[in-house]
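ENCODED BACKBONE
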Amino acid sequence: MRDVVIVDAVRTPMGRGRPGGALAGVHPVDLLSQVFTHLIDRTGVDPGLVDDVLVGCVSQVGEQSATPGRFAWLGAGLPAHVPSTTIERKCGSGQQAIAFAAQGIAAGAYDVCVAAGVESMSRVPMGSGRLSADPFGERARARFPGLVPQGVAAELVAARWEIGREAQDAFALRSHQRAHAAAESGAFDAEIVPVTVEGGEQVTRDETIRPGSTLDGLARLKPAFEDADVAARHPRVSWGVTAGNASQITDGASALLLMGADRAESLGLRPRARLVGSAVLADDPELMLTAPIPATHRVLERTGLTLDRMDAVEVNEAFASVPLAWLAEHPMDEERLNPHGGAIALGHPLGASGCRLMTTLINRLEAAGGRFGLQTMCEAGGMANATVIERLG
């Protein structure tokens, strides 16, 4: 099969997903449209060569309901013959878009693809598409009676791996410190493209990073998911998950240009990375957030690589307990884990996060001179994607 390469990867700044947030005034289609414009302009590729535009988006209702990738592409003034589709694998939707694009290219169904993700959580709130108070269904609940919301699952993970409140808060603080250091050093400059908002102002920096965070401040936050029924069933839960050590509700978009290595060569393009391998796997739906652990085993087995070969690893910080549990099962140098911070500091615009993490991972490998990188993220229902890339050049 063909080698698949990433020619370029860009993202918006991350905006707080609430009224008044830096990007809250931008329709999600227009947000993604601006990302497409920057991606095409940066690469200089003829957009008419793109075979398909695959877009991750979780809340596909309201302004995100009508194939947002299609209308973002048209809104950017790009060729009307290029189609688009929307992908929803919960928090891994953007990463799955990358995987589907790579699979299509490797198989010869595509030559050139754009994989992207978008989520405006200020304009289309999380859960907007849920018509039932119980999303699990009678049959699933009968088989797994302990199904709980994600925040409660994060508490169960913390209890299972004995991750206390102090450890979660310390990890959260580290995320903000690393993201702030990256922003101040210019490490994000190569990946962030500006977004023009109402009035012509341009947003160029992440709004979500809190450089003034302290352990004392984090310790004062109240647990966000305490539940008496769950406490009765799980007495070991210590209720340490707070708004401070969980990912932020965020607006954002990201996009990557992928193609066959042979196609890149024929076009005279210099790829930035090669897709080495990917995996998707599910785990215990009651713990829900643990699948990155076995997904990492699987992608490493498929690629024939080992964790010590990974110069940078991105484990999505849905909650601090997720990367900490992953780290307990995959011991490694913590300096290589989320080296520029993660979703606790940068935010988690659901459908866009998979592409945002990949964009940050590529830039980190280039800046540090690393070769291989691993990305994995937990997803509702107990699923996870995992991807290994190799820096080129």
The domain at 276-391 is CATH 3.40.47.10 (Peroxisomal Thiolase; Chain A, domain 1). The chain has a mean pLDDT of 97. The CA atoms of residues 300 and 306 lie 6 Å apart.
